[in-house]
Each structure stands twice: as C-alpha cells, then as structure tokens.
Specification:
With 267 residues, this protein is an alpha/beta fold. The chain has one domain (13-262): NAD(P)-binding Rossmann-like Domain (Rossmann fold, 3-Layer(aba) Sandwich), CATH 3.40.50.720. It contains 9 helices and 7 strands. Strands 3-2-1-4-5-6-7 form a 7-stranded parallel sheet, sandwiched between helices. α1 links the parallel β1 (13-17) and β2. The protein starts with 12 loop residues before the first strand and ends in a 5-residue tail after the last helix. It binds ligand 8Z2 and NADPH dihydro-nicotinamide-adenine-dinucleotide phosphate. NADPH dihydro-nicotinamide-adenine-dinucleotide phosphate binds at residues 17-18, 20-24, 42-44, 48, 66-69, 94-97, 117, 121, 145, 147, 189, 191-192, 194-197. Ligand 8Z2 is lined by residues 97-101, 107, 109-110, 113-114, 117, 147, 155-156, 191, 196-197, 199, 204, 207, 261, 264.
C-alpha cells in the first residue's frame, strides 16, 4: 500500500542506475507503481534484462548495460532515453558499492575502483543527464544514494571518502543548477536488508547482527523505506528542498557504535 498518489509520476521518465537489484530495483518498482516510465542500467546485461522484463509488468521499463565509470557508456544510456522517451525528469544515482577493509590494506587498484564507481561514476551520470535533458528542459530532479558516513566510515574508508565527495558535489550542483529548475538531494541509508548485504561474508555478517542490536529502533531498514524517501525527494512534494541529505537509518547518524567497525578485523 502507498501513501502517495498512484499518478504522482504520470508522464514522467526516470533513470535508476543499478536498478537491476536491491535498493535500485525497489526504487524502480516504486516509481513504476506511481506512473513513471523507467530506464534501468548496470554492468551485468543478463540480470539487468531479466529485471527489466519483470519490472515491465508494472509499466514501461527499458534497460541498457552501462558501467557508470565510462562516460561514453553513460552517453549511450542517454541516447536510449532520447530515442525511447525524448525526455528525462528524474535521475536516481543508486549504483555503487565497495568492500570492507581497513584503510591501510586498500591498494591503489581497490581504492581507485571504489572512488571511480561511487564518486566519478555518479558525477559522469549527473553531468551527462543534466547536459542532455535537464538543462535544455529547464527542469530535472537528481536523487543520489550515499551511505551513513557523517562520522567517517572506519572499515570502508574508500566509500566514506567517495560518498562525502558526492554529498558535497550535490550541494554544489544544487546551487549551480537551481537556475535551471533542477533540484539535487541525497538519501543516506543506514544498514538496509538488501541483495547488497548478501555480498558480505564473516566477520561482517556477524557485525550486521550487532549493528541491529545497537540501532535505537532495534532493526535494520527496508528497501521500501529507502524507496519512499527517494519518492518524496523525486516528487513535487519536496519542491522547496534541494542540496540536503535525508538520513534513512533509524538514528544511526546520531548513535552508531564506531568501535565495532574499528575492531572488526581484530588488529
Ligand atoms: C566495515 C564494514 C561495515 C559494513 C556494515 C554496514 C553496511 C551498510 C553500508 C553499506 C552497504 C552497501 O553498500 S551494500 C553493498 C552494495 N553493493 C556492493 O558493494 C557490490 C559489490 N562491490 C563491488 O562491486 C566492488 O566493491 C567494487 C570494487 C566497487 C567493484 O569494482 P570492480 O568491478 O572494478 O572490482 P573488482 O575488479 O572486483 O576489484 C577491483 C579491485 O578492488 C579490490 N577489491 C575488490 N574486492 C575486494 C575485496 N573483497 N577485498 C579486498 N579488495 C578487494 C582489489 O584490489 C581488486 O583488484 P584485484 O585484486 O586485481 O581483483
Ligand atoms: N544495503 C545497504 O545497507 C546500503 C546500501 N547503500 C548503497 O545503496 C546502493 C544500492 O545498494 P544495494 O541495493 O544494497 O546493493 P546491490 O549490490 O544490490 O546494488 C548495487 C547495484 O549497482 C550496480 N553497479 C555497481 N557498480 C556499477 C557500475 N560501475 N556501473 C553501473 N552499475 C553498477 C550493480 O549492478 P551490476 O553489478 O550489474 O553493475 C547493482 O545493481 C549502493 O550505492 C550501496 O552502496 C548505502 C547504504 C546502505
């Protein structure tokens, strides 16, 4: 059941990066259920096509494989959106990821992989979609998924640095592009039950249980809770809000046990 009007995104077109799985899929699903036409992109063509097939039962959903780290592939996604819809109204930068490691063990390649994905990739997609659609249209909306890194992110310093960069980038473009009627905001999820968490092995799995106990609401978040926050920021319900980060973390940004992260690898 939804508290939003079912036609909230009628005649609107949305791009969800990383929309084939987890939180991105839930966001694409919710946008479709509220009338949007959706494009999803990610690197792995087969699961991407499969996700688009399933999502198409809810409305119009197209896909194009794309590594957001390659701006020429991002341009190809814009080409598809232009051909299929001739416009874009909402960009959800959701694609991202990292691996747990103490900072001193992250080598150059691993560091660059995470920075390129989360910071550079997010910038490329935002710039391309703004240039191709939002600025010419004089309207657009960008919502970017980051993480809860307000107090740093021990155990995942690369992603903390990248997402802090994205949060600051969002503040800059929100100001530069306000004159084009473009809004830009971030959503910072805490620990969310999703396919992303399945990628973690011990000792992180055990840590996840501890983080749930530490949480003041005594639980992890759901993908639907993140999707609902995105829906709010992507819609006119938030029309006077830009440049902010909405925390969806059951208070973790105020009350997180950083010692658990620091001690995770027993060094
Ligand atoms: C504290 C925890 C709190 C955790 C508790 C809190 C969790 C909640 C907060 C966040 C949750 C989430 O984001 S949920 C998860 C979201 N989804 C994901 O993270 C998806 C999985 N991750 C990724 O796709 C990868 O992390 C990412 C590196 C960005 C992908 O880039 P690439 O495809 O280019 O990566 P690869 O080619 O596989 O790897 C490139 C290099 O990166 C390094 N590398 C990659 N994986 C590695 C690994 N497991 N361990 C070490 N190093 C690794 C190596 O140097 C690799 O080079 P070689 O040595 O040559 O191979
Ligand atoms: N789950 C959680 O607790 C939290 C998650 N987040 C963030 O939310 C987002 C979604 O995570 P979640 O759904 O949990 O995890 P998933 O691993 O399921 O989602 C990551 C998605 O991003 C895509 N992706 C990754 N790298 C690239 C790339 N270079 N180019 C294009 N697509 C890419 C993946 O598809 P493919 O492999 O096909 O490229 C996948 O669909 C991520 O940014 C994550 O860091 C933030 C805080 C907490």
């Amino acid at each position: 059941m939804s508290y939003y009007a079912p036609d909230l995104f009628k005649d609107k077109v949305a791009l969800v990066t990383g929309g084939r799985s987890g939180i991105g899929y839930a966001i694409a699903e919710t946008l479709l259920q509220h009338g949007a036409k959706v494009c999803i992109c990610s690197r792995k063509e087969e699961p991407l096509a499969e996700a688009a097939r399933t999502l198409s039962k809810l409305g119009t959903c197209v896909y194009r494989p794309c590594d957001i780290r390659k701006s020429e592939e991002v341009e190809a996604v814009a080409d598809l959106i232009q051909e299929e819809f001739g416009r874009l109204d909402v960009l959800v930068n959701n694609a991202g990821g990292q691996f747990p490691s103490l900072a001193r063990h992250i080598n150059d390649k691993g560091w660059n992989a995470v920075i390129n994905t989360n910071l550079n990739g997010t910038f490329y997609v935002s710039r391309v979609m703004a240039e191709r659609f939002f600025i010419p249209q004089q309207a657009g909306n960008i919502v970017t998924i980051i993480v809860n890194m307000a107090s740093g992110f021990p155990g995942m310093a690369h992603t903390g640095a990248a997402r802090a960069g994205v949060e600051n980038l969002t503040k800059s473009i929100a100001q530069e592009w306000a004159r084009f009627n473009i809004r830009a905001n971030c959503v910072a999820p805490g620990t969310i039950i999703s396919s992303g968490l399945d990628t973690y092995a011990e000792p992180v799995r055990q840590l996840l249980d501890q983080l749930k106990e530490d949480n003041l609401m005594q639980r992890h978040g759901t993908m639907e809770e993140v999707a609902n926050a995105v829906l709010f920021l992507a819609s006119p319900l938030s029309s006077y809000t830009s440049g902010i980060t909405l925390q969806v973390d059951g208070l973790d940004h105020l009350h997180a046990n950083r010692m658990r992260l620091v001690n995770l690898f027993n060094e």
